[in-house]
Amino acid sequence: MISRVGVGMIGFGTVGTGVARILLDNAALIRRRVGVPIELVRIADLDVTRDRGITLPPGMLVNDAKQVLADPNVDIVVELIGGYDFAKRIILEAIAAGKAVVTANKALLALHGEEIFAAAARRGVDIGFEASVGGGIPVIHALKEGLAANAIQSIYGIINGTSNYILSRMTNEGKGFEETLGEAQRAGYAEADPTFDVAGTDSAHKLAILANLAFGTPINFKDLYTEGVTHITEHDITYAREFGYQIKLLGIAKLVEGEVEARVHPTMLPADSPLAKIEGVYNAIQLVGDAVGDVVLVGRGAGDLAAGSAVVSDIIAGARNLLKGGAGRVPPASFQPEARRPLRLRPMEEIRSLYYLRFMVTDRPGVLSQIAGELGRCGISISSMLQKGRREGQTVPIVIKTHMARERDVQAALREINRMAFMSEPATLIRVEGKDE
């Protein structure tokens, strides 16, 4: 009979520190939930001298990951180093050794998840990755188990706290992107190099994982349309408000006519919708199931204890399965491996959406009619329009919201309009989620 479950952790940074703190501080509570102690046996990190505010027994912290993998007292390996090659090798070696694995590595899973999931399924071991999406939000569990009775119809996610913080500050304080990004960096909410966050890459990693689990099909994040928030201006936020919308960086995945739409881009949402109200560094994910309808999960998307909570939840799940001989009970990718099937990923040019279009033009007679004429020629119907600050001969904005249109047609119209002499800069496009009016 198993009298304890041993955990070995590779990576002792922010999240690793949170994991260790929770396992140590909540040891008695966790034992009551599991039935036996979950013990932190070994931690590997290149830096074994930095004070992390946690007292560990002598010899527990080492600088060689192999010592964790080779330790016979380690039943569950936790990978928290990030990156691709070394992390992938660690995970595959742990699986081959028959050890359960827990990881928070969304980038690795978004790129190599199929190989890792297949290895875990063949070996019959658990792989937990709750912390890979949404920090402390239990969205992975929701998709794999809580909503397993549902055909998931769509996913809408604010899944990058940095971008949401920036857009929230721009909305509430009327500041520009660059100024707000600088404030986010000084406050510790944005990295020194924020590219992954503000360019949408981090959100695309997470959306690929969610879509994979929701729709039972392989999704590689490199195939996702990805657009960030760097081009959003305070003017767009103001105009969005006048139309009754808020701008959020969304990961969107839908099952449409047997095909998958999956894309990351700034999106205008009705101001009274649940996701539009999510402020600051919080994440929120709206899942729509055919039986349950809308489910909205909200919480902190990052931080040592939020992500640590998700990691420890996976450790507890793995420990329970080890105790009951139920390892591999839940398929790594939610669907049974033989029941997953490739679905066509609908190209971006084929999607249909509502659109917000902003044109900066020289104010002179006939400009609006030329823009409207080109939109009409491409089959795009105008729903509403704003034109303010008439100043003949100077640059002024014309803002248009369209009825439902096809991406290919909108892009074709913009290419022609951008060539017109009265355009002072390329048109701005933001897609809109909501009902056509």
Distance between the termini: 64 Å
The helix tally amounts to 14
Rg of Cα set: 24 Å
Strand content: 15-25%
User: Whole-number average pLDDT?
Assistant: 95
Largest sheet: 11 strands, mixed
Helix content: 25-40%
Q: How are the elements arranged and paired?
A:
Elements: E1 5-10, H1 14-25, H2 27-34, E2 38-44, E3 61-62, H3 65-70, E4 76-79, H4 85-96, E5 100-103, H5 106-123, E6 127-128, H6 139-146, E7 152-158, H7 161-173, H8 177-186, H9 195-198, H10 201-215, E8 225-226, H11 234-243, E9 245-256, E10 259-270, E11 282-289, E12 293-300, H12 304-324, E13 352-362, H13 367-377, E14 382-387, E15 395-402, E16 405-406, H14 407-418, E17 428-432
Parallel strand pairs: 1-2, 1-4, 2-3, 4-5, 5-6, 8-10, 10-17
Antiparallel strand pairs: 7-9, 7-11, 9-10, 11-12, 13-15, 13-16, 13-17, 14-15
Helix pairs in contact: 1-12, 4-5, 5-10, 7-8, 13-14
